[in-house]
Amino acid sequence: MRIERELMRGAGPVAVLKLLQRREMYGYELVETLDQRTQGALAMGQSTLYPMLYNLEAQGFIEATWKEASDKATTGPRERKYYRLTDKGRKRLADESAQWEAVIRAMKALGVASHALVGRLSPAPANARRFA
Amino acid sequence: MNSIPRDASAPTTPVSAASLPPELRKLVGQVLKRCRLWPAERKDVEAELAAHFADGLAAGQSVQELMAQFGDANAAAGLISRAKIRLRPRSWHARRIVVRTTLAAAGLAIAVYGGLFARFFVGTPTITRDIRQEINAPILAIPANQRAWSKYAQALAAINIPKREKETDESGAALPPLNAFDSIESARANQAGVKLVREAAALPSLGYVVDDPASCEFVARQTERLNGNKGWQTSHFSPPDASGPAYGILLPQLAVFRNFARLLAQDVDLALQAGDGAAAGADLVAMARLAGQLRETKFLIVDLVSLAVGDLAMSKMREVLTRNPSLLSDQTLDQFAAALSAIGPRQDLVRLDSELLGFDDVLQRSFTDDGRGDGRLTPAGIRLLSQMSMGSRPENNASVGSIALLPVAATVGPGRKQVRDLYVQYLNQTKAWAERPAWLRGEATDFDAFAKLSSNEVSPFSFVALLIPAFRQTVFAADRFDTSRAATQTVIAIERFKRRTGHLPTSLDQLVPGDLPALPRDLVDGQPLRYRTSGAFYTLYSLGSDRKDNGGTPPTTESDASGISNFNWPIDASKVNVDWVFFPFTKPAKTAPVP
Hints:
The structure holds two protein chains of two kinds. By secondary structure, chain A is an alpha+beta fold. Chain A has a domain at 5-86: Arc Repressor Mutant, subunit A (Orthogonal Bundle), CATH 1.10.10. Helix content of chain A is 50%, strand content 14%. Chain A has helices at residues 5-22, 27-37, 46-58, 87-110; strands spanning 25-26, 62-69, 78-85. In chain A, a hairpin with an 8-residue loop joins strand 2 and strand 3. Chain A starts with a helix and ends in a 22-residue tail after the last helix. By secondary structure, chain B is mainly alpha-helical. Chain B has a three-stranded antiparallel β-sheet with strand order 2-3-4. Chain B is elongated, with a radius of gyration of 42 Å. Chain B starts with a strand and ends in a 12-residue tail after the last strand. The chains are: A alpha+beta, B mainly alpha. Chains A and B meet through helix 2, helix 3, strand 2 and strand 3 of A and strand 1, helix 3 and helix 5 of B. Strand 2 (62-69) of chain A pairs antiparallel with strand 1 (2-3) of chain B, so a sheet runs across the interface.
């Protein structure tokens, strides 16, 4: 299910920060991971992702570095722009996460959100690509 | 993984380096084309998009899938541009704010100025008053047989330049032609004209219609004839503009009356020579009546000419009473005194209010009219102001900057009502100052507040500066005339007393109230005019502008005579020891006598 634009505006940046919390990632990797981990709910194209990344970078929540990397998905060394979370971004993520938890509890109390959605994120589907 | 800094000087583009298919290259190019970014920023975006597509292809996605996932390229370009711009340094953002704010302010100022400019040029004045009609209406209501102007015109036509008895001097050099008004010969040669002037002066009204084209042209032609300027006057004559501003009203009758007064003064001299008291008396009474008749046209300049004519009449009267006191009859003395009194009381000698008529005319030609006495300056008003300014002070031509600000000044600057109120304020201040006795008046410091109006900047207030005549000088002229009139009437009263008692009064108190209603006051200190007797002779004098009592010593030069009675430019007391002497009459020399 695709999320409406207004909801995506709030959820997208938090989702990206969350993914970067574990490790640094590059753009394509972020797009694929978001799509797979959320069953397409937070799927977004480059026209949405990259402006979002630049805005997060401008706000100081993430920082970017060009690196040469090779993995099973590439043929030979290639440069990619990797993004990682900053301390300011970690704090921001913590704040946003707390707010989202409050919203979910509220929606649950109203009967809008199901009990099954409260708790950890659902695991990635079995056929999801693995990124280095 | 190695961290590699981007090499912005790499010879190949990131898209070509990624070996992307043409469709994806085109898509990246489409996005970059719409991005308003610095070169380094564009390169970074290009590289990132290229890397993304390369990753997708490497992951097994098709070109179509990747293109479909990309989203709206145009929207992407805008979002990417805005986001990348946010990454720019703070100093750049600060500069952009300053530039945008400045441009916005400039744009707003231009828009506002443009609106004011349009509003300014849309404004037009509405002329509702015909000043000439207002001035002439009471004149035209006077029966024709009571109006003297036509007889004065006959007199002017009857006057000719007298011929000299000899055309050359002793050395054989040609003598210049005589003036038609300034010599005994002119009086002798123009008795018909003199008689007509006396008859005209006896009529109750002058009856001169301002800006009557026929009268103006007639005077121009006669002036040309009597000045000997063949063709000059008529070739330079312009008919009066009946629709023009009131300050352009022609007043040719002023010069005519001045000339008549001079001619009558010459005739008095002729009568003195001949011992003809009737002629001398008729001339003197006519001169005094001329001064009163002139005042029918209510302009300040007319009042000043009237005072000059009256001053000449009084001077001649005192001269006659000095040289031949028994020449004039009692009736002549009474008629002359009455004609002097008829000129008007002290407070009406210069009618400052009369100038308001002309000023209102300027306002109605310069400002819009909102129906409540207010309005804003119009382009017609600016033109009028420029015309008036060029004639008076050429160095006050407005700067380009002040002209450019006129639409703003017209909107936010003083309006019609405020300008008029300022003029009336100045008028009333002058009147209040003038109404105080001269010796109690003190310095008119209020006038200094208006000095700033005569600046070089063009503004609605410039009308006030240009159209305020020398109010202070006119008040001094009135003071001078009134003192001279009081002195002359005192001289007449002394003559009447002497004829009645056979001797001079021992003091001026003896004249009051039988021969004089009150003691004549010296405008210098408010004390009675100084009166000194010596046998059968007496001296009547004012301390004069030097404010020193020099025992009634008369001035010996025209310059000192002028200075001692000029309270606007007082005489230097350290250089002369003279008084303003009314009696006996003395004729100072044109130049200082050789010691």
